[in-house]
Write a structure and sequence with these properties.
- With about 70 residues, the protein is mostly helical.
- It is built from one helix and no strands.
- The chain has one helix at about 1-60.
- The radius of gyration is 30 Å and the shape is rod-shaped.
């Protein structure tokens, strides 16, 4: 009987240690997700800015007859 209780106590100790480890890992992963989301937002902003600059450059280009059409459609 005492051996069973000791075994159970050992299992509970191990379970508690695993729980603490998983909680710590969860906190680290949440921080990584927050950082990744912040980086994603910054990258999206950069892409949007680049697209605006490209659109502005395209607007300034002169129109060329037949430009942008496949050869068969000119």
């Amino acid at each position: 009987m005492l051996e069973d209780l000791d075994a159970l106590a050992g299992k509970l100790t191990e379970l508690n240690a695993r729980l603490r480890h998983l909680r710590e890992e969860n906190l680290q992963l949440r921080a990584q997700v927050m950082q990744a989301n912040a980086e994603l937002g910054a990258m999206r902003g950069k892409v949007a800015g680049a697209m605006e600059r490209i659109d502005a450059m395209l607007e300034r280009l002169p129109e060329v007859a037949g430009a942008g059409m496949p050869a068969g459609e000119r």
